[in-house]
Amino acid sequence: MKPRAYITRRLPQAAIDIVSAACETTLWDDEANPVPRETLLRAVADVDGILTLLTDRVDTELLAAAPRLKVVANMAVGYDNVDLPALTARGVLLTNTPDVLTETTADLVWALILAASRRVVEGHRLIAAGGWTTWSPMFMVGQDVHGATLGIVGAGRIGSAVARRAVGFGMPILYHNRRPSPSLEAQIGAIPGAAIRYAPALDDLLSAADVVVVLVPLTPETRGMFGAREFALMKPTSVFVNASRGPVVCEAELIEALKRGRPWAAGLDVFEHEPIGADHPLLALPNVVLTPHIGSATVATRTRMAVVAATNLVAALTGQPVPNPVNRVEVKGEGRDGGT
Ligand code: GLV
Predict the structure, then answer these.
(1) What is the average pLDDT across 243-255?
(2) pLDDT score recorded for residue 200
(3) If 0-12 CB within 10 Å is exposed, 13-18 middle and 19+ buried, where does residue 238 land?
(4) Does residue 185 carry a catalytic annotation?
(5) Residues 233 and 206: beta-carbon distance below 8 Å
(6) Is 103 a catalytic residue?
């Protein structure tokens, strides 16, 4: 008998085909809206695997509703929507979709760096409001990006891709991780003209960088990592970019800091509580550029992510090597009758 799978959103057909070929598949056939919680809890009652998105909370309640569950294939690189210790304790495998979104997400980080530094959105809004009357010497002046010092907090795969692009802008790079990364330094250092240095202390990076980019995963250690104290350490000309997860930043404190002009501007793709509405206080500030959590959102990359998630799911349920496991568990048996 084929294993049973549930897909929590209508995905690109290529991904659905991969799952359907190997599994009895049910899906929440809506692209725009997440599956309602009650529907999800009922739908997983007899499934062996679920393909989830970051809008789905995978917690002990869901695990209790899915006694046969063997694998959760999350279509994202991040998995803070998943209670990983609970999955591991139950022997449920978690997979994610790294690598395929690295370059696309780095591009979006650069869109935010450039837009926030050069007041791109503010300028657009000004023209749309009929506010452009003349050219004047200090009209809409921003901050230079080329030659500025880039500080990357959480320099993993995406951070490295951001750093590679920075070399083209002639930017010296500082990075802060828990430990230095000789492979990152070798990779970037091999690019002619590159300068990269490890900052063991976050505070030193914050006070030296002109552009601070946050790319850490959301964990208990990184929750609230950036607040009033950290913003006060930054330069009054600095630009702050967050493309990781909203709760890494204390948003209320960022808003106050932006009002005081330190950081000078911010580019944000993620928020404490998503989605945010038109009445969000960040939108009242002229010095912010906001995007709706679209770091990996290109046609090609979202399609690849769906295919990778589908491939992980099927591999786990058919006893094949799983390309992107997050935790170490033994997936027991193959298909419906092999479960516990
Ligand atoms: C998106 O935010 C992801 O984690 O892939």
Answers:
(1) 98
(2) 98
(3) buried
(4) no
(5) yes
(6) no
Q: Work out the burial of residue 213: count CB atoms within 10 Å of its CB; fewer than 13 is exposed, 13-18 middle, 19 or more buried.
A: buried
What is the DSSP secondary-structure string of 3-32?
A: -EEEESS---HHHHHHHHHHSEEEE---SS
* pTM, full prediction: 0.95
Residues 140-155: tens digit of each pLDDT = 999 999 999 999 999 9
Q: Which residue has the tokens 């695990």?
A: 63
Q: Count CB atoms within 10 A of the CB of residue 130.
A: 7
* Measured CA angle at 336 (ends 330, 338), to 5 deg: 45
Residue with structure tokens 């091999």? Answer: 190
Residue 293 CA: which ligand 1 atom is closest? 2
> What does the block give as tokens for 83?
């209670």
How confident is the model over 154-194, as pLDDT tens digits? 999 999 999 999 999 999 999 999 999 999 999 999 999 99
Share above pLDDT 90 across residues of the chain, in percent, rounded to a whole number: 97
Q: Which atom of ligand 1 is nearest to the CA of 76?
A: 5
Q: How does pLDDT run across 28-42, given as a tens digit for each residue?
A: 999 999 999 999 999
Beta-carbon contacts of 192 under 8 Å, excluding residues fewer than 6 positions away, are: none
pLDDT digits 0-9 by tens, 121-140: 999 999 999 999 999 999 99
Tell me which residue has tokens 């976050």.
202
Query: Distance (Å, rounded) from C-alpha 51 to C-alpha 5?
Result: 8
- Which residue, chain included where needed, has tokens 């010296």? 172
Q: To the nearest 5 percent, what fractions of the chain are helix, strand and coil? A: 35, 15, 50
Residue 296's pLDDT band, with cuts at 50, 70 and 90, is very high
Query: From ligand 1's centre to the CA of 129, what distance in Å?
Result: 34
